[in-house]
């Protein structure tokens, strides 16, 4: 009966690092587990920006199917890559304590910041926030896993490239010239690792409660509720960042046009006891302030 649990994961170094963290956490609880690495569409198609692939869940679909087929027992995801709506039959069983939530500029010197510059990213959210702050700069597309992107930065005459701090830290790549961008609002759930399982496995759900981090689970739920209410997928120019200090919930949300010309920003505090539906409420405020028009524009541009 006690076969090791099969942990489905993408086969990138970062994904494997994260899946190993889950494996170690389970083994600390006396639960044996092994990794089952799988390739995702998002890892196979590397010559297009993510938002042009035209499907959601490019990083998660293969693992969803493996879960539904019973080929794996749990799937480990970077939570920010997960669509806000899980497929039928699957459930979010746990969220590990969040790592560094920030974005980072890896650069070759910062003189270009006050001048013209070329910055590489495949993320509309990073592009839009960068152009809002540095309207004279140019964005060039950059895809691939973290190591590939760092290599491309070395090989090209770009001034910098944008990354998630958590990804760099987890791969011990934080030695290069880099600046943490505290002003940039991270993707909803950036830095968090999620465990998804089949709804048919309630005893596994109970066991996984032991690795769930309460504050991270609350904050990422609110951030994703904000994203879902705006109807933005994981590739939309939307940032959201929640944190908990004592009994207070802090929230920052942003919606931009992809060119960074328009930006709607919200910064709020609320009692932690009143967090039910709060992500939805914040999103509706943004929609009323003109966000609905920006979302229309984005959807038209992305051809949805
Ligand atoms: N989109 C790819 C991706 N998915 C998760 C991470 C890093 C970990 C995280 O942000 O949670 C990254 C790399 C990046 O955005 O630079």
From TrEMBL:
Which molecular function terms from Gene Ontology are attached? hydroxymethylbilane synthase activity
Q: Which domain of life is it from?
A: Bacteria
One of the GO biological process terms: protoporphyrinogen IX biosynthetic process
Entry's EC annotation: 2.5.1.61
Keywords of the record, alphabetical order, are:
Porphyrin biosynthesis, Transferase
Q: In what residue span(s) does the Porphobilinogen deaminase N-terminal domain sit?
A: 5-204
Give the top-level enzyme category: transferase
Q: What does it catalyze?
A: 4 porphobilinogen + H2O = hydroxymethylbilane + 4 NH4(+)
Record domain Porphobilinogen deaminase C-terminal: where: 218-287
Q: Which PROSITE patterns match?
A: PORPHOBILINOGEN_DEAM (PS00533)
Keyword flag Transferase = yes
CDD domains noted in UniProt:
PBP2_PBGD_2
- The keyword Transferase is assigned to this record: yes
Pathway participation: Porphyrin-containing compound metabolism; protoporphyrin-IX biosynthesis; coproporphyrinogen-III from 5-aminolevulinate: step 2/4
**What does this protein's record comment on cofactor binding?**
Binds 1 dipyrromethane group covalently.
Instruction: Write down the required cofactor(s).
Output: dipyrromethane
Q: Which residues carry this modification: S-(dipyrrolylmethanemethyl)cysteine?
A: 234
Q: Residues of the signal sequence?
A: none
PANTHER family linked: PORPHOBILINOGEN DEAMINASE (PTHR11557:SF0)
Q: Which family does it belong to?
A: Belongs to the HMBS family.
Entries under NCBIfam families matching the protein: hemC (TIGR00212)
The extra comment attached to this record reads: The porphobilinogen subunits are added to the dipyrromethane group.
What do we know about how this protein assembles, alone or with others?
A: Monomer.
Q: What is this protein called?
A: Porphobilinogen deaminase
């Amino acid at each position: 009966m006690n076969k090791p649990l099969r942990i489905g994961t993408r086969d990138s170094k970062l994904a494997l690092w994260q899946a190993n963290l889950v494996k170690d956490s389970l083994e600390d609880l006396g639960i044996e587990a092994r990794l089952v690495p799988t390739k995702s569409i998002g890892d196979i198609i590397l010559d297009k920006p993510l938002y042009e692939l035209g499907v959601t869940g490019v990083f998660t679909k293969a693992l969803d199917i493996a879960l539904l087929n019973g080929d794996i027992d749990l799937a480990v995801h970077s939570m920010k890559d997960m669509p806000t709506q899980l497929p039928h039959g699957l459930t979010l069983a746990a969220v590990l304590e969040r790592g560094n939530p920030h974005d980072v500029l890896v650069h070759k010197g910062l003189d270009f910041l006050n001048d013209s510059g070329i910055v590489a990213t495949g993320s509309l959210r990073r592009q839009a926030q960068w152009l809002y702050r540095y309207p004279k700069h140019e964005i060039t597309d950059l895809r691939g896993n973290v190591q590939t992107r760092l290599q491309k930065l070395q090989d090209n005459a770009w001034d910098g490239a944008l990354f998630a701090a958590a990804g760099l830290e987890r791969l011990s790549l934080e030695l290069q010239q880099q600046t943490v961008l505290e002003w940039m609002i991270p993707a909803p759930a950036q830095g968090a690792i999620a465990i998804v399982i089949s709804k048919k496995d309630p005893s596994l759900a109970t066991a996984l409660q032991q690795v769930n981090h309460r504050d991270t689970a609350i904050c990422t739920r609110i951030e994703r509720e904000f994203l879902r209410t705006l109807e933005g997928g994981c590739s939309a120019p939307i940032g959201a960042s929640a944190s908990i200090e004592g009994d207070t919930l802090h929230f920052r949300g942003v919606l931009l046009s992809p060119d960074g010309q328009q930006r709607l920003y919200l910064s709020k505090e609320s009692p932690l006891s009143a967090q039910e539906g709060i992500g939805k409420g914040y999103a509706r405020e943004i929609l009323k302030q003109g966000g609905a028009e920006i979302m229309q524009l984005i959807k038209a541009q992305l051809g949805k």
